[in-house]
Amino acid sequence: MTDDDLCFLPASLLAPMIRAKRISPVEVMQAVVDRIQRLEPTLNAFAYFDPERALNSAKDAEAKISSGEARGALFGIPVTIKDLAVTGDMPTERGSWIEKGRQPDTDAPFVQRLKEAGAIPLGKTTTSEFGWKGVSHSPLTGITHNPWAHGLNAGASSAGAGAAAAAGYGPLHQGSDGAGSVRMPAHFCGIYGLKPSFGRVPNWPVPSNDQTSHIGPMTRTVSDAALMLEVMSGPHPWDHYSLESPPSAYSRALDTASVKGLRIAWSSDLGHARVDREVAALAEAGAKVFSDMGASVEEVKPMWGPQGPELIRFFWAAHELGYRKYFPEWRDKMDPGLVACIESAANHSATDYVEMRVRKLAYVEAIHRFFEEYDLLLTPAVSVAAFPADRLMPEDWPEHPWDWVQWAEFSYPFNMSHNPAASIPCGFTENGLPVGLQIVGPRMKDLEVLQASAAFEKAMPWADKVPQI
Predict the structure, then answer these.
(1) Would residue 260 show up in a list of annotated catalytic residues for this protein?
(2) Of 364, 393, 342, 414, which Cα lies nearest the Cα of 180?
(3) Choosing from 12, 57, 128, 157, which is the catalytic residue?
(4) Domain count of the chain?
(5) Residue 146 lies in a domain
(6) CATH number of the domain enclosing 230
(7) Structure confidence at residue 227 (pLDDT)
(8) Is the pTM of this model over 0.90?
(9) Is 115 an annotated catalytic residue?
């Protein structure tokens, strides 16, 4: 096995090998660090990378194994943290010159849980400014490149995590998702990304965006996502929205996963979305795999779908208004699209917000009523394959000062409704770019989404497909 092969091994295989002393955590970490140092100037997936700290932690882990002190499901496994997450021993700059050099004094709860499980942080992955857009670029860190094609979008605010997972920067990567930022990079980069039910993973500081931000795993295999989700999940007093229920044993419930007999809805456009031809065809072929596996798959155009665009554009802009206070000092160093987004909401009143929220709650109810009829919903994860990362829109789509959501209409409904949703690779375009199929389940049915994902992964494996960077 070469060092590069080692970088692509899943945590589900690495962890027992480390515990059994068949491989050293130092050997694993050194291989990952060497690969990052070789490729990172090209990819630009890290906002902060600390190889010395990671290697020293791996040496400490090796000593604990020798003395019988190894503890935790992720012991000795490299992990990356998105640079929107608060970290007490690494900077948290959130893709913005405004927060350049900011060093918190504590970890977010899920970061602490990853460390307690034995995972070793490599650093912080790049994000768009304050996580506001679906393109892998920020004023502070520049472009994060898609591993499959230099210069193309790696997707949304968790793009650094998605690119790192695809490039073999270790097995485990944390993302967050306010309108698709776990699933969109998974789609663009050809990996697996799961947005769990809202509150499954505690999120601190609690965001002020009306309960739409979710924390989730981004990995190359479904089993690794299940393992990572188990560790991060569970209630925490700092997040009053965190679910009271403890996490299920997700990773131990995947081996016999089946979709046989399930009632599954398939929608190519949610009744309103524009989708590029190749993307639609690959996603539809992915939906047919579920039928081939014994599920009952029905094509639908949900009545609630066309209500989404007006809602997301109102709330996405309204929830960025908190950054308007930075305009006097920082406007010229902020993302121009973010500035335009904020300015578009300048005349929103409190009455407007309350009235739109009433409409949003009815929309969410309609989504949950829909899932009384179906076990799962399948859609394309995103409307387009990767496009140039210096653009907000693909070249053949209408230009707009800030509205990137035009090509991302499939993801935000389930941020509003809190349903678990995953993007899973379902093929490649003629130009060799990955495409994802979205798998959505009823609220709280995270295990069912993971099991459906595992069944699809077995039928349509992808982890052996590696970008040539």
Answers:
(1) no
(2) 414
(3) 157
(4) 1
(5) yes
(6) 3.90.1300.10
(7) 97
(8) yes
(9) no
